[in-house]
Amino acid sequence: MSAPEHERLARAALSMIVEPGDLRFLDDVAANGPIGSIERVAGRPEANPDALPDAQSRMDRADPAAELERVAALGIRFVVPGDEEWPAQLGDLAGVEAVQERGGVPIGLWVAGPLRLCDLEASVAVVGSRDSTLYGEQVASDITAGLGLAGHATVSGAAIGIDYAAHRGAIAVDAPTVAVLACGADRDYPPRHADLLRHLRDEGAVVSEVPLGGAPHRIRFLARNRIIAALTRGTVVVEAAARSGALNTLNWSQRLNRMPMGVPGPVTSVASLGVHHHLRSGGASLVTSAADVLELVGRIGEHLTEIPRGEERPRDRLSVRDQQILDAVPVYQGADPASIARVAGAGLTSVEEALASLAEAGLVERDGAGWRLTEPARA
Amino acid sequence: MSAPEHERLARAALSMIVEPGDLRFLDDVAANGPIGSIERVAGRPEANPDALPDAQSRMDRADPAAELERVAALGIRFVVPGDEEWPAQLGDLAGVEAVQERGGVPIGLWVAGPLRLCDLEASVAVVGSRDSTLYGEQVASDITAGLGLAGHATVSGAAIGIDYAAHRGAIAVDAPTVAVLACGADRDYPPRHADLLRHLRDEGAVVSEVPLGGAPHRIRFLARNRIIAALTRGTVVVEAAARSGALNTLNWSQRLNRMPMGVPGPVTSVASLGVHHHLRSGGASLVTSAADVLELVGRIGEHLTEIPRGEERPRDRLSVRDQQILDAVPVYQGADPASIARVAGAGLTSVEEALASLAEAGLVERDGAGWRLTEPARA
């Protein structure tokens, strides 16, 4: 299944003209389809008078047919609604209010890499601060490795810090991972992640709403974050200072009825400040591991975290009454049942019964006329 | 206001006979008053046949009148319902189900130290693991110091680890702090905290439901925890492994409609495992500082935490449109407005308007025929 070619062409033209997430255009595309929309931009300015001058600033240089040919030669594809590969979950963006005037279903996505976007249905976003700590990076890698082993792809933003660690954890277990960029999918941004991005283009996917060559303008990160949130079942923020863009992704996740999650850290760490704030305000669920994430994003009953219980000790199996009497048995020097009864605050008959059963459990032993703890019970 | 002396005597007798939190007796005391209850124990076994043998094991040695005289000489008082000093909030224990057969309003409290229990209405419990980390101890001290400066007393259990740090933080700012023990209020338990307990007996208070000399039986810690939770507006658990007794205090706090709170830590720290579990299950609110605690336990509007925002930068005051155009202005080599318009995806007229206002804000400057960022804007 594939979108009609003239629709793809119209979407490519719009993608080259329109800023990512600019709702003035995206709403029009959603309402009138890409062909109606491009005609409106090109030939009927009166239909969208505010937006038109913006579109015209790029229109004269946009040659979508030539561009689609050029990118295909580079092994890059332009995936649009109607294509089998189109990730249907992005449709949820249609109903969600804009943040900083950015929102809406993307016109199309430029994709480099073999991973098919329609296979991201069970994916999880793991994102976080560029100013990360070793702690945060380790936890991010552990979580994405665990998610990968459980069959969940990792989506992140290829940024320095937590994003890098998130991709790396997935790669370490040969699990699929995808970067969504705020610049063209052909650009190595940040430059120091050229190797990571090359690997993702070879083995996973690098995705962008921005046409090839587009620069990573700051405002484009806001639009990019909505795609990370919308592609995935939930967003885990590992570390985020008060202003971190990762919190923007978390907000999108929440507003899209995905699962917003946050990993806590030391309260003394600035890198965890923003995460703790979101956990406090109920804007995110606390997760500590891949198992916790799986419990929240898995299908019902698919993954269940064990409640941490610690090691069970022999005492734990005793009744409260037996514990009460055991507490009153001396450690070394035996005491008679009447004395134990007084210390325990228990009747003599019940103390004698309890001592017999505690002896059977190997917790108390006779010491002359009295009773004391056994060696294992002393520990 | 003071309870009648024959009631105090009856309660002292019951306190010396009955195990802390043993509901078979405490319910009877609540229903029939201490005098009816002691008569029942002493003279009418048929009324409470199960409990009687337990009571009788200690009754022959209990001389409450002599004991009250003896403890008074030691500067210790036995505070009971009806006394002005009795902390009314302990009454909330009446309606709450038992845990491990322990619960109920204490028969009375043995108190050493000048602090009056009725002054703990706004107090906060800060408790945690004995196997604490330096991180946890630092955070516990910081929180209780902050609470103390804001006028809230700290209640804890004088245990090694977090409890010790909690008392110490309050003491550091000369704030009131109280230890509730699982042994007699005259005992130095744990032994290495003899100095702390001496300080508390001199300046704060050491409190116990157990008569003087009573040993810290393990089962008594469960009963003790309900008093810590009930005395306070909320319980903060700073570190707790999966089995920590501090979680028991947290549960009591929750069931008493107090505010259960937990401080997160590194997810890699075993010492935070139990806290994280409770935060995950919704059994506690996440707090990171005294300010967070105050927001939850303060009277409405009394304390409000500021939302962490990070530093505001000049960009933050710009409209989305101006940010979009600023993103397209080159850093060093000036570009003409038409080129900036194309890169920004914005109409020429609006770009020219935006450049004028960005210049006024000191973010862009002319460079020959074109425009570029100013030095502050490059940062």
Q: What kind of sheet is the major sheet of chain A? A: 9 strands, mixed
By DSSP, the count of extended strands of chain A is 11
Name the overall outline of chain A: elongated
Please tell me how large the radius of gyration of chain A is: 30 Å
DSSP summary: helix tally of chain A:
15
Biggest interface, chains and residue tallies: A-B, 68 and 68 residues
What percent strand of chain A?
5-15%
Q: Helices and strands of chain A, in N-to-C order?
A: HHHHEEEHEHEHEHEHEHEHHHHEEH
Round the mean pLDDT of chain A to the nearest integer and report it: 91
- Fraction of residues in helix of chain A: 40-55%
**Strands across the major sheet of chain A, in which order?**
1-2-6-5-4-3-7-8-9
- Stretches with pLDDT under 50, minimum 5 residues of chain A: none
Oligomer: homodimer
Distance between the termini of chain A: 69 Å
Describe the structure.
- The structure is a homodimer of 379-residue chains.
- With 379 residues, chain A is of the alpha/beta class.
- Chain A contains 15 helices and eleven strands.
- The first copy, chain A, has a nine-stranded mixed beta sheet, with helices on both faces. A two-stranded antiparallel sheet of chain A has the order 10-11.
- In chain A, helix 9 links the parallel strand 7 and strand 8.
- In chain A, helix 1 packs across helix 2 and helix 1 packs across helix 4.
- The longest helix of chain A has 21 residues.
- The radius of gyration of chain A is 30 Å and the shape is elongated.
- The termini of chain A are far apart.
- The mean pLDDT of chain A is 91.
- The interface between A and B is large, with 68 and 68 residues.
